[in-house]
Amino acid sequence: MDLSVAVVGFGLRSGLWRHAHKPGEGSRVTLVCDTSERGRADAARALPDATVTGELQDVLDSGVDAVLVLTPDNQHAAVAVQTLTAGIATFCEKPLDVTLEAADAILTTARETGTRLYVGHNMRHMPVVTQMRDLIKQGLIGEVKAVWCRHFVGNGGDYYFKDWHAQRRNVNSLLLQKGAHDLDVIHWLAGGYTKRVSAIGSLAVYGDVASRRDNSDRRMGEWYSLENWPPAAQTDLAEEIDVEDISMMNMLLDNGVLASYEQCHFTPDYWRNYTVIGTAGRMENFGDGPGETIKVWNTRTAYGFAAPDLEVEIQDGDGGHGGADPLLIAEFLRFVRDGGQTQTSPVAARQAVAVGILAAQSLRGDGSALTVPELDPELVEYFERGQSA
Questions:
Q1: What is the DSSP-derived secondary structure letter of residue 233?
Q2: Which residues contact 67 (CB under 8 A, 6 or more apart)?
Q3: Which helix or strand (DSSP H or E) is residue 220 part of?
Q4: Longest Cα pair distance anywhere in the chain, in angstroms?
Q5: pLDDT in tens, 128-149
Q6: Number of domains in the chain
Q7: What is the distance between the alpha carbons of residues 59 and 10, in angstroms, rounded to a whole number?
Q8: Is it the case that residue 317 has pLDDT exceeding 90?
Q9: What residues does 370 pair with on adjacent strands?
Q10: Burial of residue 211, with CB atoms counted within 10 A of its CB: 0-12 exposed, 13-18 middle, 19 or more buried
């Protein structure tokens, strides 16, 4: 029998419904909840056989087996705590929320109710990440000692500075909202969690753009264009912008690994570069999509660029983010049915939120290093057991 699935929030990440709606193959989206008239209209067109509502209570009372929480970030806990309390297995899109208190409330509720929680860190299924992690696990670069990530967000003006992403009250910072992906990947590749973090950053470009507009009547696909260049010539930015468009952070992990993350929203190119340095070599990705490469150096060379000792092609997959999105939803639905371990981790998701929040506090202060608050050890143990009592 198909699992019945609800979707709460039919906006930017609503496309995930396609991977959950497989009538006769194991799951079916039967209910969509969105507080906006446009969201409900979009859902009705996409899923004509589903019930569409503006009331979360309808979801809580529906008896569905699972729910995808795809609301704006600052509403994740407000919804997920209720769906977990109602006993509905819950997929929460990343980041968990925009405050540490809200993120911890989600994990605490999952443990107290015994309801299954899954967090949508889809990059743990992206080929560039899984292949790099496999190379590390094979011992090709020895013991990891440093991880660096440079994130060139070439679409930053279109993606993050024309709607709700541009306000701190909605996202806290883009180090959290956008960086949660990379912070989780850094932790996963390094095999540890950040315990101290410091950061600097600023609103260097988009704050000076005079062309502003209330874009609540539009969605990103209606204004996105490669012709929106150079960044200072962007038009119709959000009326209020108080998040940084360039940020840099340094991290000390609990296993001694040193890490750094740099994020810029006004570059012409759009990709992530991870460099991982170990006791026996280093590796780096050149491009992060299918057909691009991961290179490994193990041989000492004289001064100057040297050809890598190993070059690995990044794989492809069907669906969004190199096939990561369908794998993400498939793992969630398998978890709903069978339980057990998952490639994503609620504890890791919380740690990414914590680091992003503390980094924003550091950069908005004097750049001093701040200590990440520890998570309740009983919560850690519960989730490490695969959410079993």
A1: G
A2: 5, 6, 7, 8, 59, 83, 88, 89, 90, 91
A3: helix 220-223
A4: 68
A5: 999 999 999 999 999 999 999 9
A6: 1
A7: 14
A8: no
A9: 197
A10: exposed
User: What is the average pLDDT score of the chain?
Assistant: 96
**Contact residues for 277 (Cβ-Cβ < 8 A; gap 6+):** 141, 144, 145, 146, 147, 148
User: Does residue 357 form part of some domain?
Assistant: no
Token pair listed for 340: 């057990």
pLDDT higher than threshold 80 for residue 318? no
Domain membership flag for residue 377: no
Instruction: Judge whether 70 lies within some domain.
Output: no
- Domain containing 195 equals 124-322
Contact 68/8 with Cβ under 8 angstroms?
yes
- What span, in angstroms and rounded, lies between the C-alpha atoms of 24 and 105? 35
What confidence category does residue 320 fall into, taking pLDDT thresholds of 50, 70 and 90? Answer: low
pTM score > 0.90 for this model? yes
The Cα–Cα gap between 80 and 68 comes to 9
Do residues 329 and 13 make contact, with C-beta atoms less than 8 angstroms apart? no
Instruction: State the CATH number of the domain containing residue 308.
Output: 3.30.360.10
| pLDDT tens digits, 146-171 | 999 999 999 999 999 999 999 999 99
Closest CA to 358 of 376, 372, 347, 348: 372
First to last CA, the chain: 27
Question: At a CB cut-off of 8 Å and minimum separation 6, what does 207 contact?
Answer: 241, 245
Nearby residues of 321 by Cβ (< 8 Å), 6 or more positions away: 122, 123, 125, 126
Query: What is the tens place of the pLDDT at every residue in 71-129?
Result: 999 999 999 999 999 999 999 999 999 999 999 999 999 999 999 999 999 999 999 99
Q: Is the pLDDT of residue 241 over 80?
A: yes
Q: Is residue 94 part of a domain?
A: no
User: CA distances (Å), 5 to each of 20, 30, 70, 326, in order?
Assistant: 7, 6, 13, 15
For residue 294, pLDDT beyond 80: yes
